[in-house]
Amino acid sequence: MIELKHLSKVYTSGHNKVEAIKDINLTIEDGDIFGIIGLSGAGKSTLIRCINFLEKPTEGQVIFDGVDLGAISKKELLKKRQSMSMIFQSFNLLSQRTALDNICYPLEIAGVNKKEARERARELLKVVGLADKEKSYPVQLSGGQQQRIAIARALATNPKVLLCDEATSALDPNTTASILNLLKHINQTMGVTIVVITHEMRVIEQTCNKVAVIDKSRIVEEGLVKEVFTSPKSQIAKQLILPKEDFVPEIEGLECLRLVFDGNSAFEPIISALSRECNTCVSILWANTKSIEGKAYGQMIIQLPEDDEKQTQIKQFLDRNKISYKEEGLNVR
Amino acid sequence: MLDSAMVSLLGLSLWETLYMVIVSTILAYVIGLPIGVILNITGKGGICPQKAVNSVLGIIVNVFRSIPFLILLIWMLPVTKVIVGTMVGPTSVIVPLVVSAAPFIGRMVESSLNEIDGGVIEAAQSMGSSSWQIIYKVLIPESKPSLIIGAAISITTILGYSAMAGIVGGGGLGAVATNYGLYRYNQEIMLITIVIIVVIVQIFQEIGMMAAKKLDKRLK
What we know:
The complex is a heterodimer.
Chain A: E1 2-13, E2 16-28, E3 33-37, H1 44-51, E4 59-64, E5 67-68, H2 74-81, E6 84-87, H3 99-109, H4 114-127, H5 143-155, E7 161-165, H6 173-190, E8 193-198, H7 201-207, E9 210-215, E10 218-224, H8 225-230, H9 235-241, E11 256-266, H10 270-278, E12 283-292, E13 295-303, H11 308-320, E14 324-328
Parallel strand pairs in A: 3-8, 3-9, 6-7, 7-8
Antiparallel strand pairs in A: 1-2, 1-4, 4-5, 9-10, 11-13, 11-14, 12-13
Helix pairs in contact in A: 3-4, 3-5, 4-5, 5-6
Chain B: H1 4-42, H2 51-66, H3 69-75, H4 77-84, H5 90-114, H6 118-126, H7 131-142, H8 144-164, H9 172-183, H10 187-215
Helix pairs in contact in B: 1-2, 1-5, 1-8, 1-9, 2-5, 4-5, 5-8, 6-7, 8-10, 9-10
């Protein structure tokens, strides 16, 4: 478990003082995949570096498994870092070492003998699906492959926590998805707690169970992903999560329904079922929905048939399926 | 004109030059490599920033680098006498060569180490590496190709300096060039000396570049 208590970091250069993070309080439980999201410059990178003391906080405490990282010696801190690994946006592999030797690096630091280190490294290459790349140098690998090696390297010392600093920001969407799946897999099979720093909503959506939103050096909102996603309270969370309000329907005088999926209904083909049951057709004018942990979230605007009876049928169907809706007069332009 | 006595003199001088250059380079690295490492790690953004240490060392390095070698060579004659017991011959030249080359090598090493991406060092720190482990497992191995190119440049510079030592009785090819080319105005010997020096420089350069290229794993 990681507890951050009143954590602040001030950078001073001459007379300029920049508060990178201010009074951060967070608790990350064992087994969490904890996301920290914010725009660039919000203080995310400083925050994650304060967790493993790569940046020394100016105020506050980091308590990792009951130990205050600010109160222990340098030597003990180095030892602690072996159970708190980190991966980076730019992978940061040693360019003059092979994939296998890169994974051996943390084991060398931990004092594991060469033979055992190599065995462990080969095991990890299998975990990340790159068993055939042990002799490759980083330059010969793609971004996604390099990040997999970096993950294997981070796991070598059997850490309890994996800190991910924008780990997928340099990758394309497909590679991002596969790396995120790998992280989830590691969390589930090895029980590694994962802290993810990102500016991308989909990263949180696809992997995390909890999320904290950071804005202007402070945490403005935190909670379970499904809660924060369905009812974001802070302005910045709304901006990051809700679809942009750039939708201006050009249709006039139509009767429409705004359906709200709030996670109570499973992600099933609800519109098809509606058409079938009510024996009518509806057009979807606009939709923005997401599947979070298998539940549907988001909104959809459908156009109703002119027949009053059909309209009532549709509303009854929606009531039965526990989908909330709002009638929209759509005279808006 | 190029009789057997001359050939054996050139052979001996070549040997003396190689001896001066190689021993000086090794000793200059023994001093210069740690200087470069300290300059890098204590510098701004280094792994243990120490502004005071960095500035003082930087000033010392700059002072020694700004003294022209010929002047340093003469200025150091008494020191040389104390250290090696004589002021003439190739061994005596090693002292000023090392003093002159070590700060130069220090800067070369520093700039090689500065090329390493900060992210890689940060990653090593995040895995619990001590500063010492970062130096010998990350900084030096990662900058190996650049360090080798630096060594090729350094050895060439030292070779150039060693030739100046001929003027003050330092021996080697510089002495041949001074004695025959300058005092007796023997163009032929002068030319032969130049050719030999050019060839040695080329060989060192080529070996350095090839080794750097072969060892650099960043090239596909």
